[in-house]
Fold each of these.
Amino acid sequence: MSQKTALITGITGQDGSYLSELLLSKGYHVVGMLRRSSSENFERIEHLRGKVQLEYGDLLDQSSLVSVLQKVQPQEVYNLAAQSFVPTSWQQPVLTSEFTAVGVTRILEAIRQVNPGARFYQASSSEMFGKVLEVPQSEQTPFYPRSPYGVAKCYGHYMTVNYRESYNLFAVSGILFNHESPRRGLEFVTRKVTDGVARIKLGLAKELRMGNLQAKRDWGFAGDYVKAMWLMLQQDTPDDFVIATGETHSVEELVDIAFARVGLDWRKHVVTDPAFIRPAEVDLLIGDCSKAKNVLGWVPEVSFQGLVEMMVDADVERLSKRSSAL
Ligand code: NAP
Ligand code: F7E
């Protein structure tokens, strides 16, 4: 069989880097789309240089998407690019909609015009469930988004469903619950905590300022979740799937495990700061991924405790190397 080409938008992000590794291991030609920046932002894909092809394009610019698709002619398109940090979506609601919502229509429209045979994956989110109407949340649970980000993801989700039904595109939406890794952005709570723990352990900081410790999330490992993205595009018929672990944990539990990993008591270091409380909170998320288990044969492999410890260890190692180099 001839080599398949996959186009990944958001290749410089957490998921883009893990998905690239997975697709390369399966023999794909991987093309990453990135937006132009005055300085390079290749930290997560540095080790993949020379193995992936990079093309400039921006979700805000329709013609750039058409050009990339014409040039690359992919069999699979993974739309991972987005403004993905929930608090920023209150500060920049219009820009978040442009990237995270209308950007999906731009890429679907480009596929419809240039490459309608390509299979399309949309990175939908458990933030669409927001103020949850059912516990646990499945593909059947109605949405009730609680942030401009959540609203934007609902739009992208329904556009994906609509293009599938209107134009018969192989377009699927993965409703992924929170997934983390040592490559997670430093502003997200897991990484903020593991980086903070490492700094306190190494004497680089004394305290960690946090928001709502009672919020609960269903956290999994990003390396496991990108496998589900790929599996969704290998099916005979396009469909949407919830991807989750089926467990929920509070931010306080996360903090407790992370500090315990380095032998510290979190109560001596964590300070609650109202600056990190959100205008509207998503209190509880827990996913029911039985459809993914049954149809895709997908199961998460890394436990919550294993994930937090992996991230703490990676941050301690990274910051220790940096301190010893000074
Ligand atoms: P991430 O680390 O924030 O990466 C986002 C990527 O989008 C970056 O590569 C970023 O590029 C790119 N991007 C942003 N705006 C763009 C634009 N206008 N044009 C082109 N590229 C643009 O996010 P992630 O955690 O990997 O998540 C991947 C996707 O899954 C996102 O759509 C996110 O909303 C969604 N999702 C994530 C989770 C999760 O828990 N991680 C759960 C559900 C859904 P720069 O490097 O240039 O900023
Ligand atoms: O917050 C609470 C905060 O920013 C998780 C994105 O990938 O997952 C992510 O969205 C929880 C919230 O992720 C702090 O209030 C407490 O309840 O790590 P987060 P998120 O908002 O759940 C979904 C699935 C996505 O799709 C998004 O793209 O933690 N929390 N104290 C805090 N959160 C942060 N960031 N910082 C704190 O100090």
Amino acid sequence: MSISISKVSFEHYEPGAALSTDAPRISWRFDGDAKDWVQSSYEVAVTRNGKTNTFKVESSDSVLVPWPDTRLASRERATVSVTAHGKDGSSATATAEAEAALLNQDDWSAQAVSRPAFPDGVAKRPFLLRRRFDLKAVPKTARLYITAMGVYEATLNGKRIGDHVLAPGWQAYKYRLAYQVFDVAPFLKEGENELSAWVGEGWWSGRLGFHGGTRDIWGSRPSLIAQLEGDGHVLAQTEEGWEWAEGHILGSELYDGEAIDTNVSVGEWKAAEVLARPQNLVAPQAPPVRRTGFVPAREIITTPSGKTVIDFGQNLVGWVRWNKQVDGTGTVTIRHAEVLEHGELGTRPLRVVKATDTVVLGGQTEGYEPTFTFHGFRYAEISGFPREVETSDFTAVVVHSDFERTAHFESSHKELNQLYSNVVWGLRGNFVSVPTDCPQRDERLGWTADLMAFAPTASMIYDVTGLVGEWLGDVASEQLDYGKGRPPFIVPNIPLPGQTQIQPPPPVAVWSDVATITPLDLYTTTGDVGLLREQWASMKAWLDEGIPRTESGLWKRVFQFGDWLDPRAPPDDAANGMTDPTLVADAYLIHSVRIAAKVAGILGHEEDKKRYQAQAEQLLDAFHAEYVSPNGRIASDSQCAYVIALQFQLAKSEEEAESWAATLERLVRQGIFKVGTGFASTPFVLLALAAHERLQVAYRMLQEGECPSWLYQVKMGATTMWERWDSMLPNGDINPGEMTSFNHYAFGSVGAFLHEVIGGIRALEPGWKRIAIQPRPGGTLTDAATSFTTPYGSVTCRWALNADRTIIKATVTVPPNTTAEVTIGDQVQELGSGTHVLEGAWKDEGEWPPAPITYFHFPGDEKKSTYVA
Ligand code: BGC
């Protein structure tokens, strides 16, 4: 029986990160197995400049409590010690350092420095910048505040500063440019010092987007902004007096790859040019992009045409590192791809992206990694290598925003475990500072519906709150700046094909509904009302101004992506699915308006709450008039129509909901348990079946092994989630559609069903102060273990059925300072913190396997049941 605090944190920053707020809210997370532990009060002791102020608060709050002391000044450091007292008299203490970053734009005196302008419209070769400066004495404390318009990698006296890569990442740069803060005291020395950095074009000036893309979206001059301070003085900063030079990096583009010549050393140093510093620098809550894993080469393959290809065994995002010194002459070329098609590198899905790194041999290769590019790949084709390639020659380096991992899932079902792994890897590959659609082709863009669909799953697997919260801020900034209330469907927004500048977007449902749906999802995971407050203007603008409406208040018929990529949509027309796209838009509209009413209530905007409640009722009537027959059929006879109608509670009576669930069941059985949903409805299909007493039908669909289904991908050897249900066709051809990625997370939204229904873990209240634990076994599963690190500590549920599936045994852990409503079979109880071993009688919720419905077949032609047992 112990209690301890495992983590003290500020807002949603990673530990140790400098803060861009002067009154950071404080959270502490618990560890230990203390039984029924409830906090009765807490103390926060804040030590600044050797003086300690202690604040005692009678409260059970331990998440995002207000900063108790006077506000922090720019650069100020405070030691924050938290003691949590339990009702049982026990207590726990932990400490963290809070450091304010540069809180005001005028704390910056640095300018930006760059090389002379590049000619128009070219890819920009990375360059070096440096400044030498003398120090009479090494300061006691030193901080480097640094960023780039572009991407940078800095060194001080030859030593690499920090472990960030592709810093400062991508933001909607017009509104904010992230900077990093490093403690550099250990790198400084008496006498001459040298601060230097490589600078590349990155997202700032690099080519972005499809159909050729656009360069220089935010500016054509990659540049560095750095301010080095020691003991309260500026020691060096980007201004007049810097120099620039070229070196061994001949070119580096995000999409196309990097070229280096190991024979080239740094060229002549010339005077750098000074540019204006942007006025929107901010220390981010999003964790930086780092190397988060290393995957050894699994196999060297000789392809049918005689090429040498390394298989890393896992589709991932990052690059290839050279492990050894390779002597010789000529150029080694590394081409990256996610799949092999009939044994050869499958590069067609990359469209125009080259995804190729080249290395001219002659100099040092050991340890080489590209600096300012990244690739989505499992396979790397090597040509020009001076000898046979060995598996020990190269390692794949995994790169993404370095979040804390917070959920795990495992079960008795091997393929399901692989599916979960694919969901996790889909997340890892698509959070390189922005939540993106895919990491490999000429997009890698912040498509909003992709994140909207995946956020509930993502926000459990990793702590994505800091990043997604800031990205939602970018959604709001862009939307409110353009006027008309429409959030762009790509954030950061970029010019679309045919445009030379960023344009206000057309209105489109589901994608723009990210403005209402995702803030509420994040609130559910974190309990952070602040996130709702920040997004409130964006929610309102979308609903009040953004949507072109008919007199009834429903959507006018305009272009919609609809239930994008449902499996019946033709390969070349992903929006042309089974469900009327305006019906999809209208169902989402009602859902969004109800969310706005709820959020208005939470924020205390009573007038808005009433207005949105009334509007939701009117819209519901209009929806029924438009799409629901008097006997309760919905206008599109598709899984999607019934799934979203059920999930968004559009039925007017329980009987109607039941008849919809029965129709959905019919459609699923008639579809022989193949998935029939796209982006708009896949996140909910299994949840809707489970919520309406069709649990076994949900399991049957989940366990289906033929295309289209989740496990079809697994059976085809997928190690990430695919964009299309059939990105790879059963015969091994890559889907002929021009848009075919093997790393798209939207269909990974099935993770919510794994966590909540199989795993049985769900927030009963936003923020997890009250938890529901209720595993619902089904299909052929016999056990599962799921965990999630709530804001209070870890909740776990490990269950197993006996051989005849009549008894369920479970070990559950409830985190300190929370309570859980625990249902294990027929046993329901309210439990406090601690580890509990429980048992109940179990009866499967329906027949297994549920039968398909077929209407006509010749004897012997019966459609076979094809689930993966
Ligand atoms: C992207 C998507 C996105 C869609 C919208 C695609 O090219 O990869 O995932 O949501 O376009 O049209």
